[in-house]
């Protein structure tokens, strides 16, 4: 089998990880976590937001956490933000919703990591292919990301 794009990108960065392929369709965060032998909080979602026309930011959130619009606007110094739609996600990241990750993107996109991601020793992220994930240690995720913002963005 061909390695998914995020695995290729992480290999190029010399980041240890493993690829997990789900046996069938994934219908929920809880199902995905259970099949991976993880808790829902270990599943990191990569969410894309539009700041202005053709300006985007990706936020990494642990599990079912919901981004606080107020906190994100304050962090970015923006008064208006919207969630990128399906077509924008595909155009900006090259990936389908459900397979998005901050690696292997066609254009550099700023990334913010919510502090909740750092609470888990091991996480899983999108691989660039639906039904396939990449599992790695959180410290390796942060090493691969390099210098990124870390902020408290999830609603309490």
Throw out a few tags for this protein.
156 residues; alpha/beta; YbaK protein; five-stranded mixed beta sheet; three-stranded antiparallel beta sheet
Description:
This protein has 156 residues and is α/β, with parallel strands linked by helices. It has helices spanning 5-12, 29-36, 69-76, 86-93, 138-145, and strands spanning 18-21, 44-52, 55-62, 82-83, 111-114, 122-126, 132-137, 149-151. A hairpin with a 5-residue loop joins strand 6 and strand 7. The termini are far apart. The mean pLDDT is 94.
| Cα radius of gyration in angstroms | 15 Å
Overall pLDDT metric: 94
Q: Characterize the overall form.
A: globular
Number of helices: 5
| CATH fold-level assignment | YbaK protein
What are the low-pLDDT stretches, counting only 5+ consecutive residues below 50?
Answer: none
CATH superfamily: YbaK/aminoacyl-tRNA synthetase-associated domain
Order of strands in the sheet with the most strands? 4-2-3-5-8
Named at the architecture level, the CATH assignment is: Alpha-Beta Complex
Percentage of β-strand residues: 25-35%
Care to count the β-strands?
8
**What is the helix/strand order?**
HEHEEHEHEEEHE
Distance between the termini: 41 Å
**Secondary-structure-derived class:** alpha/beta
Helix percentage: 25-40%
Chain oligomer state: single chain
Largest sheet: 5 strands, mixed
**What is the level 1 CATH name?**
Alpha Beta
Number of domains: 1
């Amino acid at each position: 089998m061909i390695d998914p794009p995020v695995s290729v990108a992480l290999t190029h960065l010399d980041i240890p990880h493993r690829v997990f392929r789900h046996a069938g369709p994934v219908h929920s965060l809880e199902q995905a976590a259970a099949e991976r032998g993880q808790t829902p909080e270990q599943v990191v979602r990569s969410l894309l937001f539009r700041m202005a026309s053709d300006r985007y930011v990706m936020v990494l959130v642990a599990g079912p956490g919901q981004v606080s619009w107020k906190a994100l606007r304050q962090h970015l110094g923006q008064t208006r933000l919207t969630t990128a739609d399906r077509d924008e996600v595909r155009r900006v990241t090259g990936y389908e919703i459900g397979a998005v990750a901050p690696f292997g993107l066609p254009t550099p996109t700023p990334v913010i990591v919510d502090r909740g991601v750092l609470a888990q020793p091991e996480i899983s992220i999108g691989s660039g292919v639906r039904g396939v994930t990449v599992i790695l240690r959180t410290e390796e995720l942060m090493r691969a990301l390099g210098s990124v913002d870390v902020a408290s963005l999830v609603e309490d």
